[in-house]
Structures are given as structure tokens and as C-alpha cells.
């Protein structure tokens, strides 16, 4: 089974780690696990974060060369289907629809979003391209129920929507955490939504009794100094671990007591799955997208503020039985539907619906 793969937001071999890169690599691993040979169709990054029409025109022009090259490669290599990961208005797939039409092969999307409100304004052209890609797809795999709402609203007549649950690119669970180390927060240190989550963390920590907790923060980025200022009142109780590689991150999970990440505007968050795979109870807010990757439990609503978060943290830190019960439930949740075998089965079923088989 010869498949073309493209990630317009961030190529799987991009040097900067992120959830998007991890998910793209995970998809390739899942397809390989199903017997596919996956070709990187293009590394063109189509993202325009500023809404600059000149940048968008340049990217559209660059895509024309990529289309010509991909058609030639597809014919030579015998591509049977094309899969694009993360098509949306800031980083549309400008290549796949044209190539698949020329080759006469199925076109599949993973995590494509609809955004009608962007059809006017600085991203209008890119939003139209993202919509056209969604319209062209034979199958769209959606990751969260929030994404499914608009995909169903604008679904084309013969298009199939398939729920691909967010997953970790591993066959089995890692060893369980000892549950006796510091709390852990995992997130890039940057402005916007990440900064908002760190603000909630700081406001919550201020409600906890002093000398009863410790917090490690894994991540780095341009807002490190700003986040450090937020955490300065807590002194040595908060430790910055910096950006960790996979092995160091796994060790951090296996030594932590719980994961604390509010999840402001997270699409879903692979860190939640990584933490729960290691058995960490999660303290988070009940937010769209985030709730799709959390084991069943009570998560406070964002409008309820920081007090419920502080109460949950206190309970988990002081009640060993509760912490262990949540840990066991977290590992079972990830093992059930959020590892590589489940993802492979779902992707193969979607390809089979298009007549593509191993």
C-alpha cells in the first residue's frame, strides 16, 4: 500500500518539537504499522500566522511547483491515496486536492477544521482553500467532538467522517509513575493561550497551603522570563526543567504525583495522554477538545475559577487511595482507545472505505 502524506502546518521532520509534529509522526507510525509505505509528498509549510495576503500569494505560487513534482512522483511511485494532516485556514492544503484529482486517487484528511467566519478578512483566500480541501476529501478523520460539529454541518454528500481518537505512537503503556514526586505541568512557554494556562496555574498555587506541594514545569519558549515572574512568589517550590527530550520527559512523568494543566484553548493536548499513560491523575478544566482525552472524572468548569482546581489538588495530594484509583483509571483509559493499535485500525478502516487495502 503506497500512500502520500503531507502536513502543511509542520512537517514531521521539522526541527522544533510540538504536538503537531508528534501527531504527524504518530500518524506515519500508525500507517506503517498497518503495512503501508508512506512517502512524504511535500515539506512546504503553508502557514501564514499574520493574515498577510502577500505571504499567502507566495505560498500559493510555491504550491504550484509542489503540485507538478508530486504528480510526477505519484505516478512513478504508484501512490494509492493521499493523506493530509491538519488542514485549516492558517495552513491549508494547497497541494493535495490538485494532485489527487490528477492521479485519480482518494484524498483523506486528518484533523481538518471548518471556519466560515474566516471566509472574509485577512485569511479569506486561505480559508477558501481550506474549505475547498475539506470539500474534496473522501474521508475526514476528526479527533474531537468539537471539530465534528462543523464537519457534519458542512459535510459533502458522499463524504465519510470517521472518529480517530487522539493517540500515542506506542504499542503499550510505559511503567507506572511512583506518584510520590512533585506535580508536573507540561507546556511551551509562550504568550497567548499557553500564558493564560500558566496564569491559572499561578493563581491556583496561591490558594494552596505553603510547604505542602512542589511543581515541576517541563517546556521552554520565548515567554520563559514572563512565566518565571508568575512563579517567583513560590520560590523553590516551582522548578523549571526546560525543554526535555522523549527519555527525560518519560522520566518526569514516572516521578510525578499528578499533571496540572488547565488547557486553555488546547485542541486536545498529547501531554494529557502521555501523563495518563504513566498513571498520573490530571487536574484540568472541562474544556472542549481537552475533555476528549481525559479519563472520566470531575473536572471543574473554567467559569468556576481556581478554587475547585486547588481543592482537587489538595485532595489528590493528601488522599493516597484517591490518587491510586485515579491513576489506575487513567492508564486503563489510555490503553483502551488511545494507543497505536487503535489508531492503525481506524486509519485502515477509513482507507478501506475508499477501496485502498494493505
Automatic annotation (TrEMBL):
<dbReference type="Pfam" id="PF13692">
    <property type="entry name" value="Glyco_trans_1_4"/>
</dbReference>
<dbReference type="InterPro" id="IPR050194">
    <property type="entry name" value="Glycosyltransferase_grp1"/>
</dbReference>
<protein>
    <submittedName>
        <fullName>Glycosyltransferase involved in cell wall bisynthesis</fullName>
    </submittedName>
</protein>
Amino acid at each position: 500500500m503506497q500512500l502520500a502524506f503531507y502536513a502543511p502546518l509542520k512537517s514531521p521532520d521539522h526541527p522544533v518539537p510540538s504536538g503537531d509534529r508528534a501527531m504527524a509522526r504518530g500518524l506515519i507510525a500508525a500507517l506503517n504499522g498497518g503495512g503501508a509505505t508512506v512517502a512524504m509528498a511535500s515539506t512546504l509549510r503553508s502557514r501564514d500566522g499574520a493574515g498577510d495576503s502577500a505571504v499567502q500569494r507566495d505560498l500559493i505560487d510555491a504550491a504550484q511547483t509542489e503540485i507538478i513534482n508530486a504528480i510526477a512522483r505519484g505516478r512513478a511511485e504508484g501512490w494509492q491515496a493521499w493523506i493530509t494532516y491538519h488542514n485549516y485556514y492558517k495552513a491549508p492544503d494547497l497541494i493535495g486536492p490538485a494532485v489527487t484529482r490528477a492521479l485519480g486517487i482518494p484524498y483523506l484528511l486528518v484533523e481538518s477544521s471548518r471556519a466560515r467566519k474566516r471566509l472574509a478578512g485577512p485569511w479569506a483566500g486561505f480559508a477558501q482553500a481550506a474549505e475547498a480541501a475539506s470539500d474534496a476529501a473522501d474521508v475526514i478523520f476528526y479527533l474531537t467532538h468539537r471539530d465534528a460539529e462543523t464537519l457534519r454541518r458542512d459535510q459533502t454528500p458522499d463524504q465519510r467522517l470517521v472518529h480517530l481518537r487522539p493517540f500515542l505512537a506506542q504499542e503499550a503503556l510505559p511503567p507506572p509513575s511512583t506518584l510520590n514526586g512533585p506535580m508536573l505541568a507540561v507546556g511551551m512557554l509562550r504568550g497567548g493561550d499557553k500564558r493564560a494556562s500558566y496564569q491559572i496555574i499561578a493563581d491556583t498555587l496561591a490558594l494552596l497551603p505553603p510547604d505542602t506541594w512542589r511543581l515541576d514545569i517541563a517546556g521552554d519558549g520565548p515567554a520563559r522570563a514572563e512565566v518565571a515572574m508568575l512563579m517567583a512568589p513560590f520560590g523553590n517550590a516551582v522548578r523549571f526543567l526546560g525543554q526535555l527530550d522523549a527519555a527525560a520527559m518519560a522520566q518526569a512523568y514516572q516521578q510525578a504525583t499528578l499533571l496540572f494543566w488547565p488547557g486553555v484553548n488546547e485542541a486536545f493536548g498529547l501531554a494529557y495522554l502521555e501523563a495518563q499513560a504513566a498513571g498520573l491523575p490530571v487536574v484540568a478544566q472541562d474544556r472542549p477538545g481537552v475533555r476528549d482525552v481525559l479519563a472520566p472524572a470531575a473536572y471543574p468548569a473554567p467559569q468556576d475559577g481556581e478554587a475547585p482546581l486547588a481543592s482537587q489538588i489538595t485532595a489528590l495530594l493528601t488522599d493516597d487511595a484517591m490518587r491510586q484509583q485515579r491513576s489506575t483509571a487513567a492508564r486503563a483509559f489510555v490503553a483502551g482507545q488511545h494507543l497505536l493499535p487503535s489508531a492503525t485500525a481506524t486509519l485502515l478502516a477509513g482507507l478501506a472505505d475508499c477501496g485502498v487495502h494493505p
